[in-house]
Amino acid sequence: MVFELQQLRVIMHVDLDYFFAQVEEREDHAIVGRPVIVCVYSGRGGDSGVVSTANYIARKYGVGSGISIALAKKKLKSVEAVFLSVNHQLYSMVSKKIMCIIRKYGDAFEQASIDEAYLDVTDRSGRDFERGRDLAIEIQKDILTTEEITCSIGIAPSKLVAKIAAGIHKPNGITLVRPEAVETFLSPIPVRELVGVGAKTEKTLHNLGVRTIGELANLDLGRLVKTFGKKLGTYFADAALGIDHSRVEERGKAESISRMSTLKENTRDSEAIVGELNRLAEDLHSSTVKDGLSFRGITVVAVMDDLKAHTRSKTLDKSSRDLTIVKQVAGSLLENLLAEETNHQVRRIGMKIFDFAKHEGQKQLTDFTL
Ligand code: TTP
Ligand code: MG
Ligand code: MG
After folding, report:
1. Residue 156 and residue 175: Cα distance in Å, rounded?
2. How far is the centre of ligand 1, averaged over its atoms, from the C-alpha of 83 (Å)?
3. Per-residue burial over 8-20, b = 16 or more CB atoms within 10 Å of its CB, e = otherwise
4. Ligand nearest to the CA of 53
5. Ligand 1 atom index nearest CA of 17
6. pTM across the whole model
7. Eight-class DSSP state of 364
8. Which atom number of ligand 1 is nearest to the Cα of residue 113?
9. Residue 367 pLDDT > 50, yes or no?
10. 330-334 long-range contacts, Cβ below 8 Å, gap at least 24?
11. Measured from the CB, is residue 142 less than 6 Å from ligand 1?
C-alpha cells in the first residue's frame, strides 16, 4: 500500500492488562501468583453468575471473561484460586486516573472503554514510528510507576490496526506495525478480531470459506457486497487491507445510562419489583445529578422467566432531574408492563434514562452535599 506522507498517521491503542483482576492484585499483593477471578454474582446465592475477567494464571486453566463461575471453579478445583466480586467503583476510579495519564501523550485522545484508549501521536512523533515506540515505553512506565498497572500498546497507521496490534503481545507488550507491513501483519489473523465481526458475521464468513483477514482480502468485492450489503461489504473489503481513515476523537457524553439487576426470585409482586426499581433509580439519579445532567426519557426493562425482555418507555414533557418523578414514572411503566405481559414472572429488572441535557436551572440540595 502506498502512503502519502501527508496522510500518514501514527496511532496508538492502549489496553490495560487483565484490568479488573490486576487492580485487585494491586490492592492486595498477597494474592499475586495465584489465579485471580473477578466475578459478577447474580445475587441468587451460591455460584450463580459469570466471570468478568481473570488474571493470566487463571487463563492457563481455560478461565476467562464470560464463562460461568461454576465452570471456573470446576476448572480451578486443583489449585488455590482467589474468587472476588466485582468492585466497579474502584476500577472506574483507577481507570479515570490512568486515562488522565494517557491523554497527556497524544495530539488527540479517545477513550474507547473502561480499559482502552486511542492516541494520535502523528505530530508528537514527527511521523516517526521509532519515536512512537519510545513514547509507548514512556506511557507504560508512567502508568506503572503512578498506578502500578501494566498495559499493552499497539502502534500502527490506523485505529483498526493499532487495536489488533495491542492484543498481540500481552501483557506489558508493545507491537509496532509499520505502514508497509500492515497487510502481512493482518493476513493470518482470524476475521473475528476485526471490529464489526461478531459471532454471526464470523459464521457467515466461515461459510464463504473465509477464516483469516488475508482470506477476506482476497474475496471478491462483489461477493462481499452481495452478502453484507454495500456499506458493510465495502467496510470489510477496506478493513481487510487495514484501510481505516476514522479519526481519534473524544467521544461525547453517553447517550443513555442504564442499570440492571436480578431479583432474588422470579415474581410478579409489584411491591418487591418496585423496591428494586427504586434502588436502580437512586443509583442512576445520583450518577447523572453529579454530572449536572437532566433527562427526558425513562425506560423500564423486565426480563421474564422465559428470558424475553420487555420494555416500556416514556418521554417527559420537559427535562427533569427529580428523583421522585423518576420513581413515579418507572413505577407506572412497570404497572403497565405487568398488566400487559400476564403470562410470565419477572426475573431481572432494569432501568435506563436518556435524552440528556446539561442542567442550568436552580441548584438542588444535592449539588452541595455530593
Ligand atoms: P478486556 O480489555 O477485554 O480484558 P482484560 O483487560 O481483562 O484482559 P486483557 O489483558 O486481555 O486486556 O476488558 C477490560 C475489562 O472489562 C475486564 O478487566 C473486565 C471487563 N469485562 C467484563 O466484565 N466482561 C467481559 O466479557 C469482558 C470481555 C470484559
Ligand atoms: Mg484489557
Ligand atoms: Mg479492553
Report:
1. 9
2. 16
3. ebbbbbbbbbbbb
4. 1
5. 10
6. 0.74
7. P
8. 14
9. no
10. 330/277, 330/278, 330/281, 330/298, 330/300, 331/274, 331/277, 333/298, 333/299, 333/300, 334/270, 334/273, 334/274, 334/277, 334/300, 334/302
11. no
Q: Which residue CA neighbors atom 28 of ligand 1 most closely?
A: 65
Q: Is 53 in the pocket of ligand 1 (CB under 6 A)?
A: yes
Q: Which three cell numbers stand for residue 49?
A: 453468575
Residue 281 Cα distances to 1, 63, 161, 227, 360, angstroms: 52, 34, 40, 43, 22
**157: preceding bond cis by omega (within 30 degrees):** no
pLDDT in tens, 18-49: 999 999 999 999 999 999 999 999 888 889 99
- As annotated, the active-site residues are 116
**Minimum mean pLDDT range among 7-16, 61-70, 138-147, 350-359:** 350-359
Instruction: Compute the distance from residue 116 Cα to the ligand 3 centre, in Å.
Output: 5
Q: Is the CB of 115 under 6 A from ligand 1?
A: yes
Question: What digits encode the pLDDT tens for the residues 212-234?
Answer: 999 999 999 999 999 999 999 99
- What does DSSP say about strands 346-358 and 256-267: parallel, antiparallel, or unpaired? antiparallel
Write down the mean pLDDT value for the chain.
91
Cell 501521536 sits on residue: 121
Question: Would the pLDDT of 181 be above 90?
Answer: yes
**Closest ligand to 17 CA?**
1
Sheet holding 82-85, edge to edge: 49-54, 36-41, 82-85
Pick from 14, 23, 50, 65 the residue to mutate for probing ligand 1's pocket: most ligand atoms within 8 Å of its CB: 65
How far apart are the C-alpha atoms of 127 and 113, rounded to whole Å?
26
> What residues pair up with 110 in beta bridges, in sequence order?
118
Q: Which three cell numbers mark 181?
A: 507491513
Find the 195 Cα to ligand 3 centroid distance in Å: 13
Strands 36-41 and 82-85: parallel
What pLDDT does 369 receive? 30
One DSSP character per residue, 88-153 reads HHHHHHHHHHHHHHHHTT-SEEEEEETTEEEEE-TTTTTT-HHHHHHHHHHHHHHHHHHH---EEE
**Above 60 in pLDDT, residue 364?**
no
Report the separation in Å between the CA atom of 352 and the middle of ligand 1, taken as the mean of its atom positions: 23
Give the mean model confidence (pLDDT) for residues 116-125.
97
The CB of 17 under 6 Å from ligand 1? The reply is yes
